[in-house]
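Entry 12.
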Amino acid sequence: MDKGRMRVLGSPATAGVGIVPLLFKPSHANSQRVITKTAISLLFSLLSAGAIRPAIAQSTPPPPSAAAQQTDPASALEFLGSYTAPSAVLATETSHTSAHPPSPPASRRLRRIETGFDALAPWPGDFTWSTESTVATCTIAGADLRRDISLADTALHAQRFEEALEGYDKVVRSQAGCAPAAWNHAVVAAYAHSPSALAELTAALPDAPSPALGGMMLDLAQLSAAGAAGAGSNLLRTSAAAAGALPTAGAREAPETPKERDLTWARAMLAETSGETVQARQDLERLSRMEADCPTVWFALAGAALEEARAASRRLSEIAPKSEWDRRLQAEAVAARYPALAQSLWPGNLRAGSENAGAAVAPSSDWKAAESPESLYQQAHAALHLSQDAYRRVSQSPQFSAYLCALKALAAEQEGDEAAAIHEYQEGLAQNPGSAILHAGLGHLYRQRLDLQAAEPELERARKLDPTDPVIAFELGDVYLRLGRPQPALQVLDEALRLDPQFLLARWSRGKAYLAIGDSERALQDLEAAAPANTSGDLQFQLARLYRKLGRSDLAAQAEKRSEEQRQAKQQPKATESPQ
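Predicted 3D structure (tokens):
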């Protein structure tokens, strides 16, 4: 995701200046920190107009932190992303000999927050046998066993999955031949993220209430597992065919027939994974009308709508980068944070507030094509307002409060306001001490500041809470390595690469860990494989030193040449950069 070019202001005076308005406008009106109606910054902060440097003449930006000062200001990381992985790498250290892998792009962390819901349907009871069916099928006579089944089923519907798993464990052990109990146990294992869940579901598939429900449950479980590793695609290919046609209006659904909400959710998850942003948003918007009281649906819809807006914004910047529509979208993006700049971009009557976002007179356009600047603007505009409404609804529920805090903290990080980011993380953890996403974010920020002693316990806690996130494993392993503990670093970095074999920054870090223990050959394999992740010259310089150590002078000379070329290319923008 997030491909294309960086969007910057078009005038010479502001060339190269990035914009990152706040992700949320904080409101202290109540303990839930409900998003205010004037949170226009939520709507437009996730556009591709933003970069890491908020150096805007019309506003006084916060002073750069020590960690931010160590980065090359010419390599501004675009917050949302029209960039590729190599160009998005920020150097955390400048020495060629001691440079460590930087943090992953901000968009990867943002996407992890936005998709902070399980790909499994929010209604686990739709896929299981009822207590009555289980008792009748297995001819269970004992009152105690009936009670155990009922309690496990109640815990499942209440989404207390660990408790439900313990209950069905007891049932399965006492009723080895009870097929409904075996299937329900497999479903609960999937929702509890048991390591054996996929194998158990596959084995119990003949015991599902129907082939359609069984196939859909297995596909969603596969999608959930693959999504955690950053993979996943086309995993629901059999669900639609297996499910068959939906019941006609007014018809009663059979117990073994997938409900319309499950089919709609499955389609949305497949579209989300496949990058079909408009389709995902349409399905989730339809689902939000069917299940208006489900926070998971609204949270998924908010992220899908934002992704659609980003895609439309990037496309607008490609086909009409200096059009009135593009300037208006940028103006709306910064209206809350930088009103003077917004007025200069689009001199309409723009005021900070979503209720007035469309009040300015629309610019004229001769574009009549389906993908015109006007249509792309309208698409982004509508998607962003839908996202704001969805996030506002989510903010009423404590279920996703940690994710909302993480979004606000990440936005503060991208503005260079580390103090505000730390405050958001700490405040979020005070309310959600068991949040992996918040511990991971705080640990990441401490690592960025080179406060490794503070980063270590936060990342260790995050990894314990979420062992499926390769970014957490990478950052923890890199912290171990910098603290002089290469052996535990290797173990954690191995796990990061098992979760995501294409995670090149983890390979770079693991290569340095191998160097630390004297395994030059394995270090060489990792550093060579990780080379595309770095264009600063640092990694190539490290390779050159390693080649010389191994007596490969020709390869060392080539690596030194590439390192120098990359260093010069990196310095080149500085020579042409406007003094302002």
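Annotation: The domain at 124-243+256-269 is CATH 1.25.40 (Serine Threonine Protein Phosphatase 5, Tetratricopeptide repeat). Confidence is low (pLDDT under 50) at residues 1-97, 228-254, 351-368, 574-580.
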